Structure formats: structure tokens, C-alpha cells
Amino acid sequence: MIDKNLLAAALAGAALSVGAQERAIVKQVQVSASPESVWQAWTTRDGIRSFFAPDARIEARVDGPFEVYFNPYARAGLKGADEMRFLALQDRKMLSFTWNSPPHLGEVRGQRTYVTVRLKPVGAQATDVSLYHGGWGDGGQWDQSYQYFDKAWDHVLGNLQKRFAEKPVDWTEFLARVKAWQDEQDKAAGAK
CB 142: neighbour CB atoms within 10 A? Predict the structure, then answer.
């Protein structure tokens, strides 16, 4: 016969350990390119500009900058992934970097999450790309940031696939819209 108290304690312990698990965003895509080409896309300024964002500051070394600028016209600290750093690199296999929330989520923007990207060759000219984004808090703007990046990483990885299947992203129209928006923001801020 099963002791009901023992069973209740075991179930409570199982529920506690499930609740204590790390919340993470996990994505995977296959890219029609060699691991070397995909590595270059993630670890160079030109590579980042080919699929991720219109500008970047990248130095692929531990503690080197991994700064990705979605709005290069904004003031420092509001361009995008400002002041992010590489945490670890394993040539053509893995890179890890710090990450922050978008500027509109100011309560959590100053805190850092982390992203790990792993590359695995599939045949001669394909690569499985796995992305793990962890280090999340709970509630409020943490939840908003998590939801934002759950969608954003799909877009980024889709652009990575397109970059190799078709062509690099042309940021010309996007930058024109961002510049017009930033000019309006700067003008409104100057009027205050």
C-alpha cells in the first residue's frame, strides 16, 4: 500500500523541481551553407549586416564586443544590443554572447540574458543552427521581453536562411524608415 503522505511529498517535490527549471527560448534551423560560412555570418561585422541588423561592432574574441545596431541613428545605449559581449567561442561550432531587452522595456533593459548559438555540419553544404536564449527573470517586463524574443529569433534565423538561399538583406528601405522615425523622435525631444 502506498503511503499518501509520502506520495504527496514526492509529487510536491516533483512540482517544485519542474517549477525551478530554467525558462529558455530554443530555436533550430537548417541553413544551406557550410559551418565556416555561417560562422562568418555570426562573427564578423559584414556577416551580421548580411542577415541580422544594418550595423554592428563585432570582435570575435572572449569579452570582445557583440554589439548589434538595429537603429544606428539612435544615441549610444539605444541603438539595439549596445554593450553586449562575447562570452565564449569555439571556432565554427559555438558562440555565446550577452543580450539585453529592447529599449522600450526599460525596467529590464539594463540586465543581461545570454544566447548560445551552436553550428553542426549536415553534409557538405548545410549547417544546423541551434539557438538557446536563457537567463530570464519572471513576470512584468521579463515576460514581455521573453515573448518579444521568442518571435524575434524566428525572424533573425529566417533572415539567416534567406541570406544563404537567396541574398544578403538589403537594409536601404529599413534604414530610411528608421532615420525618419529617429529624426521625429529627436525633434520632439528637442521641443520639450
Answer: 18
